[in-house]
Amino acid sequence: MKNETAVAFTGVTRHFGPVRAVDGIDLTIRRGETVALLGRNGAGKSTTIGLLLGLDEPDGGEVRLFDDTPARAVAAGRTGAMLQDGRPVPRVTVRELVTFVARTYPEPLPVAEALALAGLTELAGRRVDRLSGGQVQRVRFAVALAGNPELIVLDEPTAALDVEAREAFWDSMRGYARRGNTVLFSTHYLEEADAHADRIVVIDSGRVLADGTGEELKRAAGGSLVAFDLAGGPSEGLDLLPGVTSLEIRGDRARLHTDDSDATVRALAERDAIRGLEVAPVSLNDAFLTLTARAPGAHTRPLETTR
Ligand SMILES: Nc1ncnc2c1ncn2[C@@H]1O[C@H](COP(=O)(O)OP(=O)(O)OP(=O)(O)O)[C@@H](O)[C@H]1O
After folding, report:
1. Residue nearest to atom 1 of ligand 1 (CA)
2. pLDDT above 90: percentage of residues in the chain
3. Does the keyword Nucleotide-binding apply (predicted)?
4. Are residues 96 and 242 in the same domain?
5. Which of 15, 40, 45, 47 to mutate to test the pocket of ligand 1 (most atoms within 8 A of CB)?
6. Looking at the chain, which terminus has fewer C-beta neighbours within 10 angstroms, N or C?
7. Does 116 share its domain with 231?
8. Closest Cα to atom 16 of ligand 1
9. Which structural domain range is residue 258 located in?
10. How would residue 290 be classed by pLDDT, with cut points 50, 70 and 90?
11. 21 Cα to the center of ligand 1, angstroms
């Protein structure tokens, strides 16, 4: 039977002196999934990606790509990558560059197809050093696709792109994913992770804090936010109301995180504490902050590992 696992991290660690850049990561990505690696600066995303691509070796644990070593999977063209480095662009045309790279792989994608997937057909004859930032990023995407990889790894692919270029980029990425391929991308942008990934893996301090869909993450971080005016009333006991997971008082306004907003609102109504009542689902932004705020030093259990 065909192995359904594209990426497998088992107990992977990578320390740089006292810095635990990757601190015991277990992660499995199935073929065909689009996964976002979400974390703030220094969370360990790039180190994780470097280990995944065999650019660096773990101190402990094991990384497997398609049940093989990362180095062999990359050399065979099964994995393509777009990393953060800003190499100077050569004075060749887009088509020449992609053709050159494609020839280094055993079973490359036809160049016209790589160009089309990256949205570069019209720009194929243009010199690479005469392109805009967004266009250069698409060239880098085409280069990553050249070997016809089953898995593509993108380290903050849309950093420094404007909204339009970003949308164009994600369109290309989805086109590639729709062919049944696997995508792993890292980002600081919560909205991007939610909009473009089937699954979000939140990492902080080199550990997986949460793993699930955007919806699951929001639920795990406390499903809804219920806010109301205290209007001089007491705040004691609010944190003990049904469903409430945390309480925050800002001036005269109370904000309750709850995983059962109906029960919380009923209890507030009984206390006659519903002035200026507002009930909203937790935004992914709030969920992310809640998750990472729990992080410092603590060995937080992954909140949702359902696969
Ligand atoms: N070669 C290295 N030598 C020493 N420390 C390193 C090295 N590479 C990474 N680190 C440290 O490991 C931690 C994780 O870094 P990493 O680059 O993986 O984070 P990141 O999540 O990719 O951050 P960013 O979003 O800023 O790119 C950081 O504290 C970083 O300073």
Report:
1. 16
2. 56
3. yes
4. no
5. 47
6. N
7. no
8. 44
9. 222-281
10. confident
11. 6
d(CA 225, CA 223): 7
Q: Is residue 304 part of a domain?
A: no
pTM of the model: 0.81
Statement to judge: residues 141 and 33 lie in one domain:
yes
The order of strands in the sheet holding 60-65 is: 19-30, 5-16, 60-65
pLDDT in tens, 204-229: 999 998 899 988 887 777 688 999 99
ipTM of predicted assembly, 2 dp: 0.96
Select from 265, 279, 271, 272 the least CA-distant residue to 237. 271
Write down the pLDDT at residue 91. 85
Centre of ligand 1 from the C-alpha of residue 16, in Å:
9
Q: Which of 25, 27, 30, 28 is nearest to 14 (CA)?
A: 25
- Give the chain's domain count: 2
Whether 208 and 244 map to the same domain: the answer is no
Q: Confirm whether 79 is domain-assigned.
A: yes
Could you tell me the distance, in angstroms and rounded to a whole number, from the CA of residue 68 to the centre of ligand 1? 26
Instruction: Take atom 5 of ligand 1 and give the residue whose Cα is closest.
Output: 16
Q: Where are the beta strands (DSSP E) in the chain?
A: 5-16, 19-30, 34-38, 60-65, 79-82, 151-155, 182-187, 199-204, 207-212, 224-229, 244-250, 253-258, 278-281
Spell out which residues line ligand 1, taking CB within 6 angstroms: 16, 19, 21, 39, 41-47
- Answer for the pair 196, 37: CB distance below 8 angstroms, yes or no: no
Mind listing the pLDDT tens digit for each residue in 70-88? Answer: 999 988 889 999 887 666 6
Same domain, 99 and 244: no
The predicted pLDDT at position 188 comes to: 85
